[in-house]
Write a structure and sequence with these properties.
The complex is a heterodimer of chains A (about 325) and B (about 325).
Chain A lengths: L1 H49 E5 L6 E5 L2 H10 L2 H33 L5 H13 L2 H24 L14 H14 L3 H12 L3 H9 L4 H12 L1 H13 L8 H5 L10 H13 L10 H29 L5
Chain B lengths: L1 H13 L4 H27 L4 H6 L14 H5 L2 H7 L6 E2 L20 E2 L1 H32 L3 H15 L6 H10 L6 H8 L5 H11 L3 H9 L4 H12 L1 H17 L2 H6 L6 H8 L13 H26 L2 E3 L2 E3 L1
Antiparallel strand pairs in B: 1-2, 3-4
Helix pairs in contact in B: 5-16, 6-9, 6-10, 6-13, 6-15, 11-12, 13-16, 15-16
Classes of the chains: A mainly alpha (about 325), B mainly alpha (about 325).
Chain lengths: ~325, ~325
């Protein structure tokens, strides 16, 4: 009896040990990757922002010194007119996403979840732009905006001197508005897919009892479906806000590194400057990578409290299921 | 009672289309029409000859067979230029420069890439990186879901925090690290970047695996299976469908992605990257190679593989891949 108990204890211990060894071995590499490519990279961003590295004149390596110059330059830039315009453009995109795309995505999802006429077909069509490369859709759209649109406006509507919308020489307002419309128009896929999934999980007895009470489609949508999936909507809004400084608004697809200053958004600016340094096309007046790292740091610090407050407000004042 | 239910069912079936439904249907139709129109325009344009589109300004009509070069259009001329001609050649990025931040990088700026290079790089990048990312996310999710150590809970919370906190502008630091490690512009850099378990798929796998009964694993363990054996032979086959879906979604994303290769794999252009650069950085000076119909044909070449995958697996791809796994 005692022998069996000891054997069992030994067996359990061995099993635990085996599990622990397997656990540690399997986690080792992914964890190392996380430490190196997430923690170190972000820590290194801070280091880059506060150090000055100059290649040694003789021999290899760098002379490294601490400096606040990059941070000061980035700080000044963040509160400059150029940055203000980029921030405003990013805000315009975010506002349009919240007040145009989100309500429409909810409406489309409701239509699909209720399996109305052509729901399956529309679901495929809404998801298709997520599958096709933004390069393909972007370039096709660009050629239509540059070649077909002026031709149609002049030939069929008698307009004169119609400008192409997405040429480098087009007016900034035409460039920005066209890019904004393209970005919003083809951004329903992921939202609709998730919202439809959430809506299909709603208890149908609630919906049926409301229908017996004579609720209209609009009431059903507004008072039952929207409140019951509002936590999903909150997640999307918060994710959209978190991506406000990373969203490029497809500007790179249309203009490569040459978009006019008036149409810049933060996400595009960050990518463009990095790409210009990689391609060695950054001139003397282009922001240094160290300054860009400092700018990213400032943007992150500014964004975190805004996200937390937004999430709290939406949870507090959003529509209640009750 | 029965009568009541019948009446309700009839009511439900006979419910008239209401204004909200009509408005939504109209909006959805406009959306679908615009997408179909854009794609159809692309397909027709890719068959037009240079003389037809650029000189004849045939922007909207069907390919004009009487125009100069009509035979060329009929014989898939633009596609032949893309697949076998010089229309798709791009030059190497001139990365020969000294940088205080990155050190000396030298490449031959005269290297010219062709379709074979793009396809090779695209498939290598997409297949390897998608598999690596799906497998790492799956492995870590399994460890966190089925090995109830404190560290597992810590990792789960950490992943939530990582997803919630946006990091802006870490690209310079990433490039710097990859160059310090000596793997920038190699496939190892792309694998290293994708060897992570941060992101939504970790939670998808976690929810799915957590829902699996422990009895499968316990029974295998009693039969003498090793931990690795349980993982490979029991858990992996049970999650194969979710794994394949995540792999496909990741494949589509990496196939279409031109920006990541542009920064971290610049001298190994993928097809997506090549299509993007084709209109801006071509080595050929022939107007027959540098015109909208040829570029549109290039777009179609890029879209075709993904379109085939979408048609073949659309139910999987559009299934309700949620935090609760894959719903049937």
């Amino acid at each position: 009896m005692v022998y069996t108990k000891r054997l069992k204890q030994k067996k359990t211990y061995t099993r635990k040990q085996k599990r622990l060894v397997f656990y540690m071995l399997m986690f080792a590499l992914p964890l190392l990757q996380f430490l190196l490519f997430y923690l170190y990279v972000n820590f290194n961003s801070i280091i880059l922002a506060f150090t000055n590295r100059v290649a040694k004149v003789e021999g290899f390596g760098y002379d490294v010194s601490l400096t606040t110059d990059h941070f000061v330059a980035a700080w000044k830039f963040f509160f400059s007119g150029v940055s203000g315009r980029m921030l405003w453009n990013s805000m315009k995109l975010f506002i349009c996403q919240i007040f145009i795309v989100t309500p429409l995505a909810l409406l489309f999802s409701y239509y699909i979840a209720k399996e109305r006429w052509g729901a399956g077909f529309f679901r495929v069509m809404l998801y298709l732009p997520q599958v096709i490369s933004c390069v393909v859709l972007g370039l096709l759209f660009q050629y239509v905006a540059n070649e077909v649109y002026p031709y149609v406006a002049e030939t069929f509507f008698g307009a004169k001197n119609v400008e192409s919308l997405l040429l480098p020489s087009s007016s900034p307002s035409a460039q920005f508005n066209t890019t904004l419309i393209f970005t919003l128009w083809f951004s329903f896929g992921a939202n609709v897919l998730i919202y439809t999934g959430a809506m299909s999980g709603i208890d149908q007895s609630v919906v049926e009892s409301a229908q017996l009470d004579g609720v209209t489609t609009l009431q059903e949508f507004w008072y039952i479906y929207v409140p019951m999936i509002f936590s999903t909507v909150t997640t999307f809004v918060v994710t959209g806000l978190a991506g406000i400084f990373n969203n490029q608004m497809n500007l790179h697809v249309f203009f490569n590194n040459g978009a006019q200053q008036e149409v810049n958004v933060f996400g595009y600016y960050f990518y463009r400057i990095s790409a210009m340094h990689v391609e060695n096309t950054a001139g003397g007046n282009v922001m240094l990578l160290e300054e860009l790292a400092a700018l990213g740091l400032i943007a992150t610090i500014v964004l975190i409290p805004i996200i937390l407050i937004t999430r709290k407000l939406m949870n507090k004042y959003g529509p209640s299921v009750d | 009672m029965m009568k009541n239910i019948e009446t309700n069912t009839v009511k439900k079936v006979k419910r008239k289309a209401q204004p909200l439904d009509i408005i939504t249907a109209v909006l959805l139709s406009v959306f679908a029409f615009s997408l179909i129109l854009l794609m159809t325009w692309g397909i027709f344009t890719s068959f037009k000859a240079y003389a037809d589109f650029e000189r004849g300004k045939n922007y909207l009509g069907l390919p004009n067979m009487s125009a100069l070069g009509a035979q060329d259009a009929l014989a898939f001329g633009n596609y032949r230029r893309i697949l076998f001609g010089k229309a798709f050649y791009i030059k190497s990025i001139n990365a020969s420069y000294y940088s205080a931040l990155f050190g000396k990088i030298t490449n031959n700026p005269n290297t010219v890439y062709t379709l074979v290079d793009y396809l090779k790089n695209s498939f290598l990048y997409s297949i390897v990186c998608s598999f690596v990312h799906a497998f790492v996310a799956f492995t870590c999710a399994y460890l966190c879901a089925k090995y109830k150590f404190r560290f597992s809970s810590f990792i789960y919370v950490l992943m939530l925090i990582v997803m919630a906190i946006p990091i802006v502008g870490s690209t310079p630091s990433m490039i710097s690290l990859l160059r310090d490690l000596g793997i920038h512009d190699t496939i190892f850099a792309m694998i290293a970047l994708n060897f992570n378990f941060t992101g939504i798929y970790f939670f998808v796998f976690h929810a799915h695996i957590e829902g699996l009964s422990d009895t499968y694993m316990e029974a295998a363990e009693i039969d003498g299976a090793s931990q690795m054996g349980i993982f490979i032979r029991i858990v992996f086959p049970l999650c194969l469908k979710t794994f394949f879906t995540v792999f496909l979604l990741q494949f589509i994303q990496t196939w279409n992605d031109y920006q990541t290769p542009m920064l971290y794999y610049p001298n190994h252009p993928t097809l997506s990257y090549a299509v993007f650069r084709m209109t801006r950085n071509t080595t050929t000076t022939s107007i027959f190679d540098q015109c909208v119909p040829v570029w549109v044909a290039g777009c179609m070449v890029l879209a075709i593989p993904i379109f085939i995958i979408f048609i073949a697996f659309n139910k999987l791809l559009m299934g309700n891949l949620t935090m609760g796994g894959l719903k049937e």
